[in-house]
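Hello Y.,

Per our agreement to keep a running log of every chain we model this quarter, I'm adding this entry. I've kept the format consistent with earlier entries: sequence first, then predicted structure.
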Amino acid sequence: MTDDPLLFRNKYRIPEIRLRGKNYAEPGWYFVTICTKDRVPWFGRIQNGRMWLTDIGCIAYNAWVAIPDHFPYVTLDAFVVMPDHVHGIVRINAHDDVKRDVEARHGTPPPPQQTTPAPSFQLKPGSLGSIINQYKSTCTRELRKQGQDGFALQPRFYERIIRDDRELLNVRQYIVNNPANWGRKSGG
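Predicted structure for the entry above:
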């Protein structure tokens, strides 16, 4: 038996990257990166500093812009679909205000009925994790419908909390310039 915290059952595990104690359903700005499994360039190619989407890339693009349709308290900011990943800024707005607006238009919904026990691990409703999970599920489901059985995204995603306006501007600039900078540095 080893005392290495990165080992579980003698296999290495990826350490948690989320901030302990941070509620990722709180209003705020988040910079997100979602990668394809093994960084396979399913989404397209960069040519002359410009991203050219494949049909698969178009599905990833359309699923991204549809996020607010599923989560009305989410606002999208700058984003780019790259050959093997997606960068985007997600703003989670105050949920209670959105909930009140929806209820005012449509009435108070009945409480959800649960017919099966909840899994031991469950994403917090309204959290960044649930938003990105829905996006990834949508992409994968749509591509599998089209016979792209080999398509997969990495199980996790990278996220960074954007703390102020200056950082927001820097992240926006990074995203906008990402296609032009492709290949100049690793990680794109």
